[in-house]
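Consider the following input, taken from an annotated entry for endo-1,4-beta-xylanase (Azospirillum thermophilum).
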Amino acid sequence: MTGVPLSRRAALLGAAGAAVLGTCRAASGPAPAEAASRPAEPAVTLREMCRKAGILHGAARDHYVDPEDPMLDRLMARECDVVTPENGGKWVLFQNREGRFDWSRFDAAVNLARDIGAKPNWHTILWQHMGTPDYMKLPKARQAELGIGEDAYFSPDGTLGPENYWQRFTDAVARVKERYGDIFYRIDVANEMFFWETVESHPEEQDRFGFRKGMWWVAAGGDKGPEWLDPFFHHVRKVFPSARLVLNEFGVELDEGWEQRKRAYLLDWLTGAVQRGVPIDGLGLQSHLIGGRPYDSAGMRSFLRAVDRLGLPIHVTELDADETRLPRSWSREEKDRRLALMVGEYLKDLLGHARVAEICWWHLRSDLNFISKMHPQMKPQPSPYDARSRPTPMYEAAVQALRAKTRAG
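Applying the prediction step yields:
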């Protein structure tokens, strides 16, 4: 983000302690030559620590972007109780053209989960401003009439509107159910629904309840009030009665006005949704943390306690840490230490002030994370394992936060 948030990543600067990496044990079983090529395994896995705290642990994976990698497969098998298809579950990929489906990337993530004894997630059905093919956008010819400034919501090939949005939504949900059954642990019913400014300052982009004036808001009649989103949750509950249904959002961690406003918009809608009986099972926090920006620990703790009072657990859905704003002069060790401090403090606040149901990393291995792909020359380490599947200091910081949780009960 530069100034105001434009790139959907949140920011955080922590000040908690992090221990050095724990003693590692060598992997047992394979022949000596094979064993020598494998990284040492941590003395305790994050999955083990999460299980002790009653939390599911997992990560995203995209087989059509990530390499076929037996070492990564072993790592996922050792660490994951849940698997999120990073891209495969997005509308733009599984139904890029109306009536034509390509399940290859979705299948790969679901099959991986099955193979390693984990449960798949579905990320995501409704994405308010991205992740949809051109035909699922609003007609470009309506942009001036609607008075909405964001070009990404519109396409010359767009045909989404009040007359077809519900049929398209229910058809897509039905096709996913037909293919996979009621197998998902979590479904991100709605993703990035909220904006971060005020209706007075940004009337073309945001309504008075904080919603983006995005594609789904327009098609489903968001101008009638905050209840416009409720029917989507009700329908997904009928089709997938076993899944945890969540609203997934980014950008709530900073000690800055825009993120504080966003917390308030989220809390207002969640409070109303619970009162209206909307079948929502939790709040998804993407948790894309950024080093070098001010973390609002007190504000987050207050927000988490308020969400907890609503009876809603927290799902950490896309956890990683961005070092690209830290001083370039810092050593690898200094950057790793700062990222570990940041992740450790964030997790301690979550674990101490909310019911955390799930911790899902946006890749276990740093070289596969989008931050590494955007900044390859920096060789960043945004994930709990490095490119050779060795645990980073961030890993141990997460272990220590979870250990403190289990000791506290």
